[in-house]
Design brief:
single chain, about 300 residues, alpha/beta, five-stranded mixed β-barrel, two-stranded antiparallel ribbon, about 30% strand
């Protein structure tokens, strides 16, 4: 085979093997040994990474180089060697944060944690309020009303009512994106509505990965018929922040960051100091109390 390097996209990873999409086909690869020698506390390669490979056959190859990541959506995960930065998806164009309006009730504090990570990594976030049929559109907008006012795009969806499915389909087209959120919010049903059979395909992949049997869960980007790739992230019960210092948190809350310069102290925590512009804005109703509470809990390290 030719020794020329080929650029490709990691679209699946499981048990040390990577499926690379290159030259309009999938090529199964492993990492070159020298790459494994790197001592880093995060995934060496992840879905969404751009890589250079050498072909060993038309369907097999070796990853020679992982191109620098521009951004990544990640979480803190325990390993045998301690905690590791688990890359859920690298280089996404956008991330869809899916929360149900009911069944289960939405945890807006968890949504705020997702948004902090997206803000830190400069990943455009789209909030998807699903199962609108359970509460009605007016109630759904009331639940999530603070977020559009902060500049986040909000899409109300219902598979039963076929509400905004076409809009969601347009949003995922021709991009690399991911659906993330808690378990039971209807991500697979939405993906099935966007592209028939897509959610079921992802479900089968999860089953074959041995989820629940202490084996590696497959992470995969699915190619869309209309162009682009989408990943269904695992249902997350918690999302710990990685490498985020308390004093930088105010920069990841859009309603706080423009006020910081007006605080009396340049190291203001916005919790107890006098002359705090953030607390003044809170008292004047310019900051939503629940969002401020999310900030305080994150600042104090509360889960």
């Amino acid at each position: 085979m030719s020794t020329a390097l080929i650029q490709g996209l990691v679209i699946r990873q499981q048990a040390g093997f990577y499926a690379i999409f290159a030259e309009n086909r999938e090529i199964t690869c492993k990492l070159r040994g020298k790459l494994k020698e790197k001592k880093i506390n995060e995934d060496l390669a992840a879905i969404g990474d751009r890589v250079l490979i050498t072909l060993l056959s038309p369907s097999e190859g070796v990853i020679e180089k992982v191109m620098p990541r521009e951004k990544a959506f990640y979480r803190l995960a325990p390993t045998a060697r301690g905690e590791c930065k688990q890359i859920l998806i690298a280089n996404p164009d956008k991330i869809f944060l899916v929360f149900a309006c009911a069944e289960p009730a939405p945890s807006l504090r968890m949504l705020d944690r997702f948004l902090v990570i997206a803000e830190k990594q400069k990943i455009p976030a789209v909030i998807v309020a699903n199962k609108v049929d359970l509460v009605g559109e007016q109630k759904a907008r009331e639940i999530f009303d603070v977020y559009p006012r902060l500049g986040y795009k909000l899409i109300l969806t219902s598979v039963k009512q076929e509400l905004n499915i076409d809009l969601l389909r347009c949003e995922v087209q021709d991009s690399i994106s991911a659906f993330s959120g808690p378990s039971g919010v209807g991500k697979s049903s939405l993906l099935n509505a966007v592209q028939p059979g897509l959610g079921m395909l992802i479900g089968r992949l999860k089953e074959s990965s041995g989820k629940g049997r202490h084996t590696t869960v497959v992470r995969q980007l699915i190619r869309l018929e209309d162009g682009g790739f989408v990943a269904d992230m695992p249902g997350l019960r918690s999302l710990s922040l990685w490498d985020t210092h308390p004093e930088e948190l105010d920069g990841y809350f859009p309603e706080l960051r423009d006020l910081v310069a007006d605080c009396q102290f340049n190291n203001c925590s916005h919790i107890m100091e006098p002359g705090c512009a953030v607390r003044r804005a809170l008292a004047e109703g310019r900051i939503h109390p629940a969002r401020y509470e999310s900030y305080v809990k994150l600042r104090n390290g509360d889960e």
